[in-house]
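Students often ask why we bother encoding 3D structure as a string. The short answer is that it lets us treat folding as translation between two languages. Here is a chain of 212 residues written in the first language.
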Amino acid sequence: MKNGNMLLLAGLAAVLVLGSGCVVQPVQGNAMGGSRSGDGVGTAATGDASAASIGAYRLKPLDPLYIRFSGVQEQQVLEPVIDENGEVSLLHLGPVKASGLTTSELEDRIERLYIERGIYKNVSVNVTMTAKVYYVQGEVNQPGQFQLSTGTTLMQAIAGARGYTPFANRKKVTVTRQGKIFTYNMKELERDPSLDVKIEAGDVIKVWQSVW
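And here it is in the second language, the structure alphabet:
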């Protein structure tokens, strides 16, 4: 019986050791091989974060902003326009990068900078977009500044400016955007509306005069 008990105990010990190995080995595999398990979790988290931000507008140069401060007395409201470098200038901070951020991300950045630099101990910032506009110039019947609606296209923008004058060159319409100039032949766009392009905030559309 003693021998039998000893053999039974040895068998149980072997099972425990093997069982431990079976448990430990996958854990080691996850820790060392990374990465697969870790990357999978990381990717899922990133995917969720990206999904949450789908559709959120990313700020661009020339976007007008309305910034309201709470918890500080020396400033309450600012109405800056993002400059061509993608920055806004704020009291005590100087230029702050805004382009590429959502309004919520810009709020967090401004609050963090004020607190980290010891300028304010407690500040709450609210950032919203004011009306976005574009401009139509040249040979149109009603040149001027227009409020941008979602999905406004080049042909719609010209129509909103009451169309062309008799002197308009429909083969040469330019859109100036962030220092770059794009030229369009409107007759081609009219023949194939799928070629029409969307207008962005701050765009300057110019209909050139026809050369006789």
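Translate back mentally: The CA atoms of residues 34 and 60 lie 38 Å apart. Keep this in mind for the problem set.
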